[in-house]
Amino acid sequence: MDTRLANTWRLTVNEKRFIETALSSGIRIDGRNPFEYRKLSIKFGREDGSSEVQLGQTHIMGFVTGQLVQPYRDRPNEGTLSIFTEFSPMADPSFETGRPSESAVELGRIVDRGLRESRAVDTESLCVLAGKLVWAIRIDLHILDNGGNLVDAANIAALASLLTFRRPECSLGGEDDLEVIVHPPEEREPLPLIIHHLPIAVTFGFFSSESLLVIDPTHHEEAVMVGKMTATLNANGDVCAIQKPGGEGVLQSVIMQCLRLASRMASDITKKIKDAVETYNTERALRKIKRHPTSITLDGSVNLKEKLNEPSGHNVVNELSRKHLEKPRLASAENASSPGNNGEGESKSSNFGRSSRRDGATSNFVGGAASW
Amino acid sequence: MEVDRADGRNPNQLRPLACSCSILHRAHGSASWSQGFRFIQTSHFYHFNLFVFTSKCYFCYWVGSGDTKVLAAVYGPKAGTKKNENPEKASIEVIWKPRTGQIGKPEKEYEIILKRTLQSICILTINPNTTTSVIIQVVHDDGALLPCAINAACAALVDAGIPMKHLAVAICCCSAESGYCILDPTKLEEQKMKGFAYLVFPNSILSVLPEGSSLVQGEPMEHGIITSVTHGAMSVDDYFHCLERGRAASAKLSDFLRRSLQSKLPGDLSKAE
């Protein structure tokens, strides 16, 4: 019992007072305006439907997978959407494995309400065979780093991964047209989900003095605040969900102000998400053009004709690549003639140790790929 | 006796490695380790052959070559040990989080293997009656998952400043039907091969071994094996063959690990909150 108390992190009284005093003069401890979001970065993984969102210090990953299942009896024509949130112990020393804590369940419910009950994802298009087979979409959200305001970041991660997810195309065949054939991605291009609108969650924190209100609280501010409210809106100005779980009472005028702010934030964030997804889609399309299983043969020669020339500054690279068509032949001859290399492999080790710093505390070392 | 690999590597070639430390803010130590490419950007890299100083340039359009990426975070040492742990020593707790789905028996097995491996490299007598938690999150799995996780965990332990005797480097070798040994297989290769082994070797604390360095019963320390997990059937000779190849490749991995950890900034901000 004592050890658990010893291991939890608690804000000291001095820090609490400092945060509150600073807020009453409109200063936040990380230098933002009270109505400003932290820096949002949305990245995508190699597979469709995986996203990594960083909102300031909060880091969340989302994965979307799909499976064919039997539909619910009362909704035989609709697919299902389920959200699983993992409050990984990686994110916060107070998160534990096993049964999800209250805040984990709350987060899951808020994201769920925003996506499912506002009908953002079109579930009828997920039906393959009415009453027999539908697509069940599963969203896994992994919280990696708790820097505060997990709800907003988790929502963005869920949306980003849903927008980039592709499900395999199905067609009916066989006798009676009742057999479902799932086409692998190499055969037929997988299809994106139909998403009508993007519900964005915006979280507000309330403090003990009247009308002190911040958007996107950090985890220090979360430890100080006395009440919070999450409003889920979309860019059209529709309110999808509002969650104010107890806490200090606030005036009606403050709530209206929050909703107005939230709709502004929602359109900003929607734009950012859409831009990120656009970039990903163009890269994906480019990748598809170049992917040819026959173009790389054993001796390393590459079919240059199939390459789309990268713009600017890669002419040098193209020349080198022509040279390398001869070199691998030499190299493989070398390798063949010196089998007593003692198994020394050609493991790629980079001589470009590029260290880049993020927030002054990260160091990056890439072995092999010289990325720009 | 060339074996055809789908991504054009030769049998002794590892996938490109990438390691970054201190990526999480709340965790006391964190690291991500990836073997293979991320396909977001097209990139080219220069490869220096060990014997002939030539540079080859490959466009990385590896077909079907994926990447295995693992994120590791360390919290510790925290006060107290669990009930069935020895309170006279520090204990290590490993939590393995798969990409999707429930936690089942394979995850538990990975946790146990990782825990025993890390217990043998950490100095457990320094902080008795404490628990150090290592949390592993699988970001992407394309073969050689456990070695990737072990490497990430070691880097994260260094980032957190946990006292260790030496590091460990892990590698996966599989043996094909023809008796040939292949290093660092992708998931497809793992499934096709006759058998494969995850091997963990100690990382030497010296970059250049002096003559007559510490020999334990006539063999240098680096030739020891910390962990070996095999899947599938392979003959004894095949296994020894894999061990040799793995050991040779582990020297490269050790180098890479050493360099990537050395380039970290000293005097990092204290993360104890």
From TrEMBL, chain A:
<protein>
    <submittedName>
        <fullName>Exosome complex component RRP45B</fullName>
    </submittedName>
</protein>
TrEMBL record, chain B:
<dbReference type="GO" id="GO:0004527">
    <property type="term" value="F:exonuclease activity"/>
</dbReference>
<dbReference type="Pfam" id="PF01138">
    <property type="entry name" value="RNase_PH"/>
</dbReference>
<feature type="domain" description="Exoribonuclease phosphorolytic">
    <location>
        <begin position="13"/>
        <end position="163"/>
    </location>
</feature>
<dbReference type="GO" id="GO:0003723">
    <property type="term" value="F:RNA binding"/>
</dbReference>
<dbReference type="GO" id="GO:0005730">
    <property type="term" value="C:nucleolus"/>
</dbReference>
<keyword id="KW-0378">Hydrolase</keyword>
<dbReference type="InterPro" id="IPR020568">
    <property type="entry name" value="Ribosomal_Su5_D2-typ_SF"/>
</dbReference>
<keyword id="KW-0540">Nuclease</keyword>
<dbReference type="InterPro" id="IPR036345">
    <property type="entry name" value="ExoRNase_PH_dom2_sf"/>
</dbReference>
<dbReference type="GO" id="GO:0071051">
    <property type="term" value="P:poly(A)-dependent snoRNA 3'-end processing"/>
</dbReference>
<dbReference type="InterPro" id="IPR001247">
    <property type="entry name" value="ExoRNase_PH_dom1"/>
</dbReference>
<keyword id="KW-0694">RNA-binding</keyword>
<dbReference type="InterPro" id="IPR050080">
    <property type="entry name" value="RNase_PH"/>
</dbReference>
<protein>
    <recommendedName>
        <fullName>Exosome complex exonuclease RRP46 homolog</fullName>
    </recommendedName>
</protein>
<dbReference type="GO" id="GO:0000176">
    <property type="term" value="C:nuclear exosome (RNase complex)"/>
</dbReference>
<dbReference type="GO" id="GO:0000177">
    <property type="term" value="C:cytoplasmic exosome (RNase complex)"/>
</dbReference>
<keyword id="KW-0539">Nucleus</keyword>
<dbReference type="GO" id="GO:0034475">
    <property type="term" value="P:U4 snRNA 3'-end processing"/>
</dbReference>
<keyword id="KW-0271">Exosome</keyword>
<dbReference type="GO" id="GO:0016075">
    <property type="term" value="P:rRNA catabolic process"/>
</dbReference>
<dbReference type="GO" id="GO:0071028">
    <property type="term" value="P:nuclear mRNA surveillance"/>
</dbReference>
<dbReference type="InterPro" id="IPR027408">
    <property type="entry name" value="PNPase/RNase_PH_dom_sf"/>
</dbReference>
